[in-house]
Specification:
Elements (H helix, E strand, L loop, with lengths): L10 H9 L1 H9 L8 H4 L8 H9 L6 H13 L10 H11 L7 H13 L1 H16 L7 H5 L2 H4 L1 H15 L10 H23 L5 H4 L5 H21 L6 H17 L11 H12 L7 H16 L6 H18 L2 H6 L10 H16 L5 H24 L8
Helix pairs in contact: 1-2, 2-16, 4-6, 4-12, 5-12, 7-15, 7-21, 8-14, 8-18, 11-21, 14-15, 14-16, 17-18
InterPro entries: Lcp-like, MPAB/Lcp_cat_dom
GO molecular function: oxidoreductase activity
Protein name: DUF2236 domain-containing protein
Length: 401
């Protein structure tokens, strides 16, 4: 099946890339993009993590859940060798994940990790109000969430799962084989495969022509570009200064995470030019927000009112207003309107307070000195871990799919 960039001339595509946040991305990358390059990547729309899929077929779809989980956990926690007597698919996947590529530079990845940590709660605001909410405007990208019942499971759990994943994989030296973060990546990879196989088996009206394979490789690359390029774009809007070395580190870190998740490494972007080109070409496949997108947006906003991290109702209502103000400050007006995010009075007030606070903190922490930088990394890490702990405490216990 061959896919075409059918939305390249659509109003929503042209507005985003000619006058919205997309224009800012193009300027940050310093490039112009030829739509003819679309075919370099379009095959990824119908490619998936076949190793992960086969593991799920040989474990979760054959064995009782607790037996499959125990088997996967055992080989997530311990090295796998060619001589182990385990299902061939498990052996292939774990041997691939244990094979550290020649291109991987642990110190460069750690530079990216330290940047993620030193941004503290700024990072969490951007992930929620810019990256996640902004991603809901890509109607086709979100279809797996709808078909796997993400709305019914609730935004609280999805936020907890996303936050738990992001925090653990973005710490220094976190991605060593058999580490806690490595085990979390294994579970996430197989969760993607399980969801994909469930959709293919049960969703009779899955639109392969327009939506590609469920959770396909190009959608995955676009998602992880959200954790790198778009993430850094959002942080710049909040006044965070980013060095060239930090930019390289963030891309390198997410390239390796993507590799561990079964995404073809040769297509994972290493710099802002590659990231913006891929996002531009991929977005030519994506229709603008639809009713499913609006429901996802509403669920994310309503999470402020339904979570129990804050005890009092007035606190939760204030939190909702603050997140809405961030949406309106960070995202294009057209996108906010399509997602039906209610506008608030003085939407720039709270963001400008954050920007001013960031400028002051960089001076106080003396970020240009090694000692000051490390202190800010340690402080930001504590902030992020505190938020994660709060979500874990106030989220229902995990259930299996």
């Amino acid at each position: 099946m061959k896919v075409q960039p059918k939305f390249y001339n659509s109003l929503h595509f042209q507005t985003f890339w000619n006058s919205g946040n997309g224009k800012e991305l193009l300027e940050m990358a310093g490039i112009s993009i030829d739509i003819q390059n679309f075919e370099k990547y379009s095959h990824l729309y119908y490619e998936v993590d076949e190793l992960g899929d086969q593991v799920v077929k040989d474990t979760y779809l054959k064995l009782p859940y607790h037996e499959a989980s125990a088997l996967v956990q055992k080989y997530s926690q311990n090295p796998v060798s060619e001589n182990d007597e385990i299902p061939e698919s498990l052996k292939k996947m774990f041997l691939q994940m244990q094979q550290i590529p020649e291109w991987f530079d642990p110190e460069l990845a750690n530079i990216g990790a330290r940047f993620n940590m030193r941004t503290g709660t700024n990072a969490l605001i951007i992930l929620r109000d810019f990256t996640l909410m902004g991603g809901y405007d890509f109607a086709y990208l979100n279809k797996p969430l709808i078909f796997t019942g993400a709305l019914k499971k609730g935004a609280v759990k999805r936020l907890k799962d996303t936050l738990e994943f992001w925090v653990h994989v973005t710490r220094e030296n976190a991605l060593k084989v058999n580490s806690d973060a490595y085990q979390l990546i294994v579970r996430t990879r197989l969760m993607h495969s399980y969801a994909r196989l469930s959709i293919k088996a049960k969703a009779e009206n899955w639109d392969y022509e327009n939506w590609g394979e469920p959770i396909n490789s190009w959608d995955m690359i676009a998602t992880y570009t959200g954790f790198s390029m778009v993430f850094m774009q959002g942080l710049k809007k909040l006044g965070i200064k980013i060095s060239e070395e930090e930019k390289k580190g963030v891309f390198h870190l997410w390239k390796y995470i993507g590799y561990l998740l079964g995404i073809p490494a040769e297509y994972l972007p290493e710099n802002r030019q590659e990231a913006v080109e891929q996002l531009y070409l991929w977005s030519a496949l994506q229709d603008k927000a639809d009713e499913d997108s609006v429901q996802l947006s509403r669920a994310l906003l309503d999470e402020n009112l339904t979570n129990t991290i804050y005890k009092f109702k007035f606190q939760r209502k204030l939190l909702l207003k603050l997140h809405q103000s961030m949406n309106w400050f960070l995202l294009d007006r057209e996108l906010n309107e399509r997602l039906k995010i209610p506008e608030v009075s003085f939407p720039a007030l709270f963001p400008k307070m954050i920007i001013q606070g960031n400028r002051i903190s960089e001076k106080i922490w003396k970020i240009n000195t090694p000692e000051g930088y490390q202190k800010l990394v340690n402080f930001g890490n504590k902030e992020q871990m505190k938020v994660l702990d709060d979500y874990i405490k106030h989220t229902p216990k995990d259930f299996h799919y």
